[in-house]
Queue: 2 jobs
Job 1
Amino acid sequence: MKIFSSAQLQKADQLTVEREPIASIDLMERAATTVFQEIHQRLQGAPIPIKIFCGIGNNGGDGLVIARKLIEHGYHVTTYIVNYSDRRSKDFLINYDRIKNVTKDWPILIKGKNDFPTLTRNDFIVDAMFGLGLNRPVSGWTKDLIEHINAAEAFTLSIDIPSGLFSDQALAEEHAAIQADFTLTFQSLKTSFLLPQSEAYVGDFQIVDIGLDRDFLQTAIVHKFFITREEVIKRYKPRNKFSHKGMYGHVAIIGGSLGKMGSIVLATKASLVGGAGLATAFVPQCGISILQTALPEAMVVAVASHDHLKADQKTMDVLSDLQPTTVCFGMGTGQEQATIDTFHHILKNTKNAMVIDADGINILAAYPIMLKDIPAKSVLTPHPKELERLIGSWVDDFDKLKKTKEFSKLHDLVVLIKGAHTVVVDGDDLYFNSTGNPGMATAGSGDVLAGIISSLIAQDYISKDAAIIAVYLHGKAGDFAADKVSMQGVMASHLVEYLGEAILDLFKPQEPKT
Ligand SMILES: NC(=O)C1=CN([C@@H]2O[C@H](COP(=O)(O)OP(=O)(O)OC[C@H]3O[C@@H](n4cnc5c(N)ncnc54)[C@H](OP(=O)(O)O)[C@@H]3O)[C@@H](O)[C@H]2O)[C@H](O)CC1
Ligand SMILES: [K+]
């Protein structure tokens, strides 16, 4: 699913008005009516106090339409105009008049701190102060009002975007934005919703289709996407009836050290459950019986050394004789010099795209000279600390995206930014994951992900698609697991266990949205 920038959405608004054609006031009525219907469906006429805060632009105009519709349906609504400027928009003014037809009175004007209403936890607040027109941080008494609303801890629904939050740039900590519990957003997600810095503001969100110009939406070029089920299905390759295991690739998972063999078990198992035809774990001696006991389906090759990976020529020859389709390196290896040398040797002798995880990434960060030896389009799967070691620190989340893109382009790699909405970075293109839950922040979760990505590359998916499908399925498996064992109860093994269910779910008929 495409993620549009605020400039593109404003363009879409304008083109819809011209091409449909539809008067902008009618488009506002249509958009806000859709929001009203969503609210009405949830509240079902509940007699709770609803307080709607409207700005003076079109976001405020939306708020006025919602207020009018709610009043017409018998809700207890108080409407406030947050008068932060005298430059009221045309469509705001029309709706300012229209609401008077149902209330017989003007909404309450807020012009400063003295006008702030008392709010309680029992209020239902609708925030329609600023939308995509926000062009600078909110300041003065308007900022105080945002803080006043947040302090009430009442359920807050934001229209289009939590007021004060930017769509395409970061909000510094000292600035204020509405801490929404829920955001109903028009036509497209806003990038900031998916970034950790916005966590306090966005809450849950839902996209409402307001019928903007289809042609524009389909043809506009974007570099940001949301990884939905449809994005995965369109990339998924069904299996042929006459296929055999040799057609689904051979994954070599290389890593492990004394006390850290579990990571290899998880990754190797995930690669098999993910569909690879064959998997070989390539480990120090200490790993042989662990692997063979835990995972009879996998082959095991051990280097001569006992505790760490220290490959001699003989074992390297064994690896090249195996001719794995995909090599995955890094989990649990540690950073002994012999291991670093082994890694460097593997990099230089591998042609196909690899998957590099954990200590593999730490070694690359410590020895950037090795970056040039990584096969093109390899996938790096750092968690935030590992990413920082790799690309340096960032000022904010948008800067992190920019620096990761530069790194990806410079080295021709696919890089993951792991987190609540894991991002797959492929050059200029960013793919944000939609699945997963905080229960997945658990030991070994990343090993499973690296195993799935390796598995898909071995099955002939291009690295970017392998990463996109893998993060989605990994998250979905986590969601299924959390449903069964609770978020706290999720362990990495559950992610492997529920991976099959996540794959099956791709092809299950979905329940219609209520
Ligand atoms: N066009 C349509 O029919 C639709 C519009 N939709 C809704 O519109 C908003 C975007 O509305 P817009 O009027 O462009 O802007 P806002 O309502 O977000 O903001 C109003 C004005 O506020 C000023 N501004 C910006 N930042 C600040 C600030 N920090 N402090 C004070 N004032 C600020 C700015 O004007 P300036 O001249 O002062 O710069 C804004 O113009 C969109 O989000 C939707 O909710 C829907 O898309 C439906 C169709
Ligand atoms: K808003």
Note: The longest helix spans residues 463-485.
Job 2
Amino acid sequence: MDASLRQPLAAPVIPIGADAGTGPVLRALAADAVAAVALQGVSWGPKGQDDILTDISFAVPVGQIVAVCGANGAGKSSLLRLIYRHHAPRRGEVRLMGQDLWKMGADAAARQVAAVLQDTPGELDLTVRQIVALGRLPHRRGWGAGFARPEAGAAVEAALERMDLAALADRRFATLSGGERQRAMVARALAQEPRVIVLDEPTNHLDIRHQLDLLHLLRGLGLTVIASLHDLTLAAGFADRVLVLHGGRLFADGPPAAALDEAVLAEAFRVRAVVDRSGPRPRFSFHL
Ligand SMILES: Nc1ncnc2c1ncn2[C@@H]1O[C@H](COP(=O)(O)OP(=O)(O)OP(=O)(O)O)[C@@H](O)[C@H]1O
């Protein structure tokens, strides 16, 4: 494998804030921009156990669309949990819009970063509209007061509309299909009006039309998007940049054609891959 792919390469490395420390990612930074998300030397593992993620550093510019790829158990969900403030790093630092994620409150973080997760609680006895309205929670002032404000209702209705859920808004969430639930969870994230949206396998449960629709919509939001994806063809078609995790380390980082080359795929996924580069985006075929 091209040795340069082992380190963050073509994707721009940008500052994570004026007071941002001195690690190699930070020293290489241009002067003025603030990264939407930046990790510097981050390691994480469950309490009392070895690291699952080791020494991860990258910075995501505002508005970039990033796919996180890697084999089962490579650490994709764990990495996303660090970004949406579910896991605190064991070492290193996670910054959101230039601020240390763990020095801001949970609500302040949730006003900036929304997460769409793989397993949605189907047993909740709430309607789709009520589920989507939960996205307004970080914006409430005092107990529940934010829900009553007209802009809260408008954000919820806009999110329902955007995810093509208006007709299902009064249905009980528990009665939805897997794909409809997934769209409702994306609508909840949109109602949150975040700057960064993190999605763990967002195309799970979606038929091919809804997969393409969702990725197209995510690209059109004008937000910073970080999504784990198993389907490398979708990742290559959707993302500006691909992070490949392997054994809990950042193994490749770059535009799809560079980060998803044959040598990376052979090592990170233990498959032989043929990459067809004849079109605008790479296409893959795989063999054992
Ligand atoms: N809280 C935890 N306690 C113990 N082990 C954990 C914990 N969280 C993750 N792991 C382990 O860390 C490794 C990485 O898990 P993670 O869910 O991040 O991988 P992934 O790349 O998202 O995998 P997949 O593609 O299968 O969803 C796995 O071996 C998993 O079992």
Note: Confidence is low (pLDDT under 50) at residues 1-31.
